[in-house]
């Protein structure tokens, strides 16, 4: 789905990720185990063609926003996604800060805040949700700082480093 305008906040901008935005940098993030450790993309090797096909499907979709994250000072630093369910007035969000040198510097929290506000005010949803691996403490902290609450834990839902790992489900009510 295409945005009519960028989502802009303090030091960051979210805009539609287009097929021509696929780069070696982006593909490198998808393949880097230190970056994709908590992401489901780690189970597939993505070619530029695979990535462009995924992006084209998002653009054609009536309910998926796939966005690039740009820092005012650092340029392209990651991606984020909104899965909008207009029938239930909900949205699921997710993000990847691909630039590992910027982890822990507040970008994730800023992006979560922008996504939450966009979903509540522009999409008119009543609830914004997200899921994360229980051991991803920095991501959990960023969601909690943005007013999300933990709704539940799915015990042993995924495998991380050959061991069962819980998934935490979070929600924000608009």
Task: Provide a quick synopsis of the model.
With 174 residues, the chain is of the alpha+beta class. 29% of the residues lie in helices and 37% in strands.
Overview of the molecule:
It is a single chain. This protein is α+β, with helices and mostly antiparallel strands and 174 residues long. It has one domain: Aminopeptidase (3-Layer(aba) Sandwich), CATH 3.40.630.30. The chain has five helices and eight strands; from the N terminus they run E-E-H-H-H-E-E-E-H-E-H-E-E. It has an eight-stranded mixed beta sheet with strand order 1-2-3-4-5-6-8-7. Helix 4 crosses helix 5 (137-145). The radius of gyration is 15 Å and the shape is globular. The relative contact order is 0.15.
Give the helix/strand layout.
Elements: E1 7-9, E2 12-16, H1 24-31, H2 33-36, H3 48-60, E3 64-71, E4 75-85, E5 90-97, H4 107-122, E6 127-133, H5 137-145, E7 149-160, E8 163-173
Parallel strand pairs: 5-6
Antiparallel strand pairs: 1-2, 2-3, 3-4, 4-5, 6-8, 7-8
Helix pairs in contact: 4-5
CATH top level is: Alpha Beta
Q: How many distinct helices?
A: 5
Give the fraction of residues assigned to helices. 25-40%
- Main sheet strand line-up: 1-2-3-4-5-6-8-7
- Poorly predicted spans: none
Biggest pleated-sheet summary: 8 strands, mixed
Structural class: alpha+beta
One letter per element, helices H and strands E, the order comes to EEHHHEEEHEHEE
Q: What integer is the average pLDDT?
A: 96
The named CATH superfamily: Gcn5-related N-acetyltransferase (GNAT)
Shape, principal axes of CA atoms: globular
Number of strands: 8
Please state the second-level CATH architecture.
3-Layer(aba) Sandwich
